[in-house]
Amino acid sequence: MLNFIVPEPHPIAEVDRTRGYITAVSHHLHAADVEVVAVWLDPMNPRDATFVIRDSTRPNSPQGLVWNEWEGWFRGEFGSGRQGERTKLKNSVHLGGGKLPKPEVVAVHYALGTTAPIDVEREAKIARNIDAYLERWPVPALSGC
């Protein structure tokens, strides 16, 4: 059984507002049997988050899944990074789906290695107030799956 890993609270409130969304993505990755070995929230401008993922088909090459509020989700080989610095991915590919796709969509596209189309109308609404959309995923009171 895989461990369910969630991001730690971030000391900057504006960055921490992303934690509920990132926790929901972690939950859906876990449900899709994706082995997350680390996840953290990162600096601002843009706010972002990183997942480090163990891929059994590439045991010596950790994978990365990175979100930022300006561009959305990218996957690739984890190059470098830690909380407080920008993560670098090698051979990164945009997952599609816009800046804030639903967590279950992120997990499915990561697990299947596919990309999602962008819903232009939804994207325009999100761009006007991304924090309002982030509030749809509150931080759970208890960690665990």
Task: Describe what this molecule looks like in 3D.
The chain has one domain. It contains five helices and five strands. The mean pLDDT is 90. The chain is an alpha+beta fold and 145 residues long. The longest helix is centred in the N-terminal third of the chain and has 13 residues, at 19-31. It has helices at residues 13-16, 19-31, 103-112, 120-128, 130-134; strands spanning 35-41, 48-54, 63-68, 72-82, 85-94. A five-stranded antiparallel beta sheet has the order 1-2-3-4-5, with helices on one face. A hairpin with a 2-residue loop joins strand 4 and strand 5 (85-94).
Q: What is the topology, as strand order, of the major beta sheet?
A: 1-2-3-4-5
Computed CA radius of gyration, to the nearest angstrom = 14 Å
Outline the biggest β-sheet.
5 strands, antiparallel
Overall pLDDT, averaged? 90
Number of strands: 5
What is the total domain count? Answer: 1
Our estimate of the beta-strand percent is 25-35%
Global morphology:
globular
Ends distance: 12 Å
Tell me the structural class.
Answer: alpha+beta
Low-confidence stretches: none
Q: What series of H and E elements makes up the topology?
A: HHEEEEEHHH
Tally of helical runs: 5
Helix content: 25-40%
